[in-house]
Design a protein that fits this description.
- Pfam families: FMO-like.
- There is one protein chain.
- This protein has 506 residues and is an alpha/beta fold.
- The chain is built from 14 helices and 20 strands.
- The strands form five sheets. Strands 1, 2, 3, 4, 5, 6, 17 and 18 form an eight-stranded mixed sheet that branches.
- The chain binds flavin-adenine dinucleotide (FAD).
Length: 506
């Protein structure tokens, strides 16, 4: 027998836990958080690679409703962020709602009963509303490389670090130059015998304003909350001011490129290596990376930068697209995640019996990044076009939580067994507006191929505005954008005597 809940949240990262807190604050206690893993934490449970840390300062990369005066550094490490999420889970009494080891295998809208039916690894659930918070960067992407299966040594992805493997004294190859790879390289370089970095595209790297947050600052943040708020406000404001250059005037990013080039020049004296590390696309087109130790690590005697992607594996030999061949004992992929083809989409079937993946075959699209046509009472946390290039995703998550809260309020006001489904015209109009704005952004015009773009070159991931604008457009649910569905009326013959119109058996 399936357990019925008002809301089923899928995922227990910042998005799912944030939704759970918000539900409780809205007085909704009849909900579960379905998590496929055996612990909460999402990104910050899965990414345990050496050097793993956030790249948006911790005082902004945390919930506004759960400030943490104790952040140890500007950019705190994974153990601290994971511990923070565990604390949030305890503080807000979320444990009783957690259903761990409960991978959602399918979610199907039952139009007859007006509810979702979920099949999970730990049993069946039905829910009035589903919140999908499965994360934009949660399913690792491993490139298909001929011969990889026969590589004799350990092979793993940055988000599934194998701590059983001792890399000390080994010849290690790292594939990729994204946000994870540039944290891994300096962390492992001192202990491996040889490190080869396969770089398909060099990244733009800016200095990282990281430092320990002093005891005095922490004391002050604990005793005088206004100081904490001011710090967060400043971090937020600086990033909001940068948005226009990314979304409307990429030509203004030349100055930032100059800063990045100076950073590279300072660290890398060898002009040939510097040339290999210099990007040929506009800064910001791919995610800008922050590091003070990545470039210095690449200049060490035990490091080689192969300016070409890994094309083939022949035994323990790794062959780059340009023909370079190196031997390695272990292979680490920092090749990112499945971002534009959200894996959960294949498992969610809507009102017409069509999966979300089919609906999105020409590109992901959702009204206000949150609801999709054909999928009643389903909301995404970090849905299509909600990603940020320069600021904290928690800001976007919290905006979507406002929308979720209003969505539930609207359902309550409408009463009965009701569902709201985004009108296709509203989704299309929203998406057309987004795509029009995308044309001017650095992501679409900067001359790079990035994970913001899908296989057709459409940008279905990034938000082309400020976080303040997103907060504004997700404050309220506009019922004009929705179609209301009501449960088909059943014959009234069974209504118990004495009950009036409103008490018709449902
Ligand atoms: C290394 C790294 C560093 C990052 N640093 C920053 C940063 O500094 N600033 C920033 O803004 N963003 C950063 N991000 C992006 C980060 O992913 C988001 O900020 C945020 O953590 C996403 O939270 P989420 O809850 O949406 O997703 P996740 O944290 O990915 O959580 C999703 C959860 O859903 C679960 N799940 C997935 N599918 C199913 C299923 N079918 N059934 C049940 N459960 C399922 C997963 O197991 C996971 O626990 C970083 C990402 C990575 C990988």
């Amino acid at each position: 027998m399936a357990e019925h809940v008002r809301v089923a949240v899928i995922g227990s990262g910042f998005g799912g836990l944030g939704a759970a807190v918000r539900l409780r604050r809205e007085g909704v206690t009849d909900f579960v958080v379905l998590e496929r893993a055996d612990a909460i934490g999402g990104t910050w449970r899965d990414n345990t690679y050496p050097g793993c840390a956030c790249d948006v300062p911790s005082h902004l990369y945390s919930f506004s409703f759960a400030p943490n005066p104790e952040w140890p550094r500007n950019f705190s490490g994974q153990p601290h962020i994971r511990a923070y999420l565990e604390r949030v889970t305890d503080t807000y009494g979320l444990r009783p709602h957690l259903r761990l080891n409960s991978e959602v295998r399918s979610a199907r809208w039952d139009a007859e009963r007006m509810r979702w039916e979920l099949d999970t690894a730990s049993g069946a659930y039905t829910a009035d509303v589903v919140v999908s918070a499965t994360g934009p960067l949660s399913d690792p992407r491993l490139p298909e490389i001929p011969g990889l299966d026969a590589f004799p040594g350990p092979v793993f992805h940055s988000a599934r670090w194998d701590h059983g493997v001792d890399l000390r004294g080994k010849r290690v190859a790292v594939v990729g130059t994204g946000a994870s790879a540039i944290q891994i390289v300096p962390a492992i370089q001192p202990e491996v015998s040889r490190l080869t970095l396969f770089q398909r595209t060099p990244a733009w790297v800016l200095p990282r304003a990281d430092r320990r947050i002093t005891g005095v600052e922490r004391w002050l943040h604990g005793k005088v909350p206004a100081t904490r708020a001011a710090r967060r406000g400043m971090l937020w404001g600086i990033r909001e001011l940068q948005v226009g250059a990314f979304t409307k005037r990429p030509d203004r990013l030349g100055f930032v490129e100059a800063v990045a080039k100076a950073h590279l020049r300072r660290a890398v004296k060898d002009p040939e290596l510097r040339a290999r590390l210099t990007p040929d696309y506009r800064i910001g087109c791919k995610r800008i990376l922050l590091s003070n130790d990545y470039y210095p690590a690449l200049t060490r005697a035990n490091v080689d930068v192969v300016a070409s992607g890994l094309a083939e594996v022949r035994g323990s030999g790794l062959v780059a697209a340009d023909g370079t061949r190196v031997e390695a004992d272990a292979l680490v992929f920092g090749t990112g995640f499945r971002v534009t083809d959200m894996p959960i989409a294949r498992r969610i079937t809507g009102a017409d019996g069509v999966t979300l993946a089919e609906t999105w075959k020409d590109g992901m699209a959702a009204l206000r990044g949150t609801t999709a046509a054909g999928f009643p009472n389903l909301l995404f946390i970090i849905g299509p076009n909600t990603g940020l290039g320069n600021s904290s995703m928690i800001l976007m998550i919290e905006s979507q939580l406002n929308y979720l809260a209003d969505f539930l309020r609207q359902l309550d006001v409408l009463g009965g067994r009701t569902a709201l489904v985004a009108r296709p015209s509203a989704v299309n109009a929203w998406n057309r507006g987004i795509q029009r704005r995308m044309e001017r952004t650095v992501w679409n015009t900067g001359g790079c191929d990035s994970w913001y773009l899908d296989s057709e070159g459409r940008n279905t991931t990034a938000w082309p505005g400020t976080t303040a604008e997103f907060r504004r457009v997700t404050r309220r649910v506009d019922l004009q954008e929705y179609q209301m569905l009501r449960e088909p009326r059943r014959p009234r013959t069974q209504a118990p005597a004495g009950l009036g119109e409103g008490a018709v058996a449902r």
